[in-house]
């Protein structure tokens, strides 16, 4: 796949529609590690890996030698200076600030309240309407609306109301998708090439420039709404916490980039994961039955939490606290994240020459691509049934406990000092959403559709996930 002069570029572009699967095939064929080169004179030298021993070395043992690097920060310039794009001391400060936001008791309470409210007054009533007329709908689109609202509310203390009955335009979410789609192109092309397009404002770069304007406009609009809200509300937003932690953020542009980065952290991840969870569940009815069996004892105790819809139907919503010990449900989510991680790859830069546990030598300036997607599908890591959706692999023999799986083998939430800071919140959010949907509804995929990832830095579905739902007889 390495061509003279132009290097790996033609192979990548030729197979780009199937980017993650192609990398998986190559890595499986080359024993989890692969060197490749970009076009001559581009200076792009790649090392691709999905080898857990190398990943532990890169992300933990010698992580200081593997920053994200300035090229990564340039690719995601819209988030420049904020948590995803910085390394070293700046990153430590940003992580501390994010943690003080996520652990603030008022923020935690607001997240729980809004999660319940959106399910009870938004998602479940919408699904009841679709069920009553057997109308097919796009589950990914619906989840996107829900997660956009749930992510924005604690950041701005304002509800963008994407899940309201009139289904408003999702241009801001679409602009966030554009950042990830053009991000993939920027990862692949030599920087001089995409920077030229940016200067000329053409092709994907023209689309990205429009997306940037829409995203900064969204932040301005939300901040204005935030200022205008009732002063009696004692809620604390991310904006309040950031401004009180560091006055440097009163420069509006850094604050805007940081808030957009917080939006990505919550939205692009959970919003991308959940449609794949429903896809995997629809394909594996025995897993759905096992989750329902686990929910049944809680459901039978719940009468007070019943949601009445015009007196015609009763829906159950499970609180976060009620789902926290449901190991099978948790295993079903991990198993979906193994096969369909929302961030399918990571990128690191080599600072100084180094020797990896696999025996490969890396040179300063090289780019390391870590395929999280491929790692989840390697027979050498997960065994012969690695392509099957099997939550049982996460459970102890008697099924009563979750097995310990090290993060350098299951990379969906990253590994080492830059591990995801929202894992527990994300898992809690996903447990309650999946529990409510599958307890109350049968979800069937519309036949004949092609469900595949789009070309992007995230694993969003290209054509969505069309489903038909039916209310369950319990
Ligand atoms: C299914 C859900 C999620 C998955 C699979 C996930 C995965 C990840 C991954 C792979 C990274 C590393 C990104 C990188 O290095 O470029 C990361 C970082 C991060 N995540 Fe998550 N995430 C999820 C949900 C969330 C949520 C809901 C939040 C916030 C509420 C969050 C907050 C963060 C933050 C702040 C970081 C930055 C850490 C750093 O760069 O040091 N994540 N996450």
From TrEMBL:
GO terms for molecular function: heme binding; iron ion binding; monooxygenase activity; oxidoreductase activity, acting on paired donors, with incorporation or reduction of molecular oxygen. Its cofactor is heme. Gene3D superfamilies: Cytochrome P450 (1.10.630.10). Keywords: Heme, Iron, Metal-binding, Monooxygenase, Oxidoreductase. InterPro entries: Cyt_P450 (IPR001128), Cyt_P450_CS (IPR017972), Cyt_P450_E_grp-I (IPR002401), Cyt_P450_sf (IPR036396). One of its GO terms (biological process) is lipid metabolic process. Heme binds at residue 420. Belongs to the cytochrome P450 family. This is Uncharacterized protein. It comes from Eleusine coracana subsp. coracana. The gene is gb25708.
């Amino acid at each position: 796949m390495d061509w003279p002069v132009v290097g790996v570029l033609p192979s990548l572009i030729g197979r780009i529609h199937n980017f993650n699967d192609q990398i998986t095939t190559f890595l499986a064929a080359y024993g989890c590690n692969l060197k490749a080169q970009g076009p001559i004179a581009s200076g792009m030298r790649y090392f691709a890996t999905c080898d857990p021993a190398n990943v532990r070395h890169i992300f933990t043992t010698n992580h200081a030698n593997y920053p994200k690097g300035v090229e990564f920060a340039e690719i995601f310039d819209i988030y420049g200076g904020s948590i995803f794009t910085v390394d070293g001391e700046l990153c430590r400060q940003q992580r501390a600030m994010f943690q003080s936001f996520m652990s603030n008791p008022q923020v935690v309470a607001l997240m729980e309240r809004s999660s319940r409210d959106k399910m009870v007054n938004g998602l479940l009533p919408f699904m009841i309407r679709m069920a009553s007329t057997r109308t097919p709908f796009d589950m990914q689109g619906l989840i996107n609306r829900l997660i956009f609202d749930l992510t924005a509310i604690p950041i701005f203390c304002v509800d963008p109301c994407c899940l309201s009955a009139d289904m408003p335009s999702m241009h801001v979410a679409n602009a966030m998708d554009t950042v990830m789609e053009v991000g993939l192109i920027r990862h692949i092309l030599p920087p001089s090439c995409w920077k030229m397009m940016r200067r000329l404002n053409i092709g994907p770069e023209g689309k990205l420039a429009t997306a940037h304007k829409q995203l900064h406009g969204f932040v301005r609009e939300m901040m204005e709404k935030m200022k205008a809200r009732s002063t009696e509300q004692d809620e604390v937003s991310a904006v309040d916490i950031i401004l009180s932690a560091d006055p440097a953020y009163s420069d509006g542009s850094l604050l805007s980039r940081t808030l957009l980065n917080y939006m990505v952290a919550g939205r692009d991840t959970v919003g991308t994961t959940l449609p794949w969870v429903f896809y995997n569940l629809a394909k594996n009815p025995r897993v759905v039955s096992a989750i329902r069996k686990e929910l049944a004892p809680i459901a039978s105790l719940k009468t007070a939490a019943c949601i009445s819809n015009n007196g015609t139907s009763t829906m159950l919503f499970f609180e976060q606290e009620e789902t926290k010990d449901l190991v099978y449900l948790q295993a079903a989510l991990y198993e979906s994240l193994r096969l369909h991680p929302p961030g399918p790859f990571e990128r690191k830069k080599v600072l100084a020459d180094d020797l990896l546990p696999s025996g490969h030598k890396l040179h300063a300036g090289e780019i390391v691509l870590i395929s999280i997607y491929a790692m989840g599908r390697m027979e050498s890591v997960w065994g012969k049934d690695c392509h099957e959706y099997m939550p049982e692999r996460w459970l102890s023999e008697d099924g009563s406990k979750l097995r310990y799986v090290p993060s350098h083998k299951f990379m969906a939430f990253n590994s080492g000092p830059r591990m995801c800071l929202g894992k527990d919140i994300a898992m809690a959010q996903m447990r309650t959403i999946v529990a409510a949907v599958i307890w109350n509804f049968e979800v069937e995929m519309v036949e004949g559709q092609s469900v595949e990832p789009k070309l992007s830095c995230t694993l969003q579905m290209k054509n969505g996930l069309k489903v038909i739902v039916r209310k369950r007889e319990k």
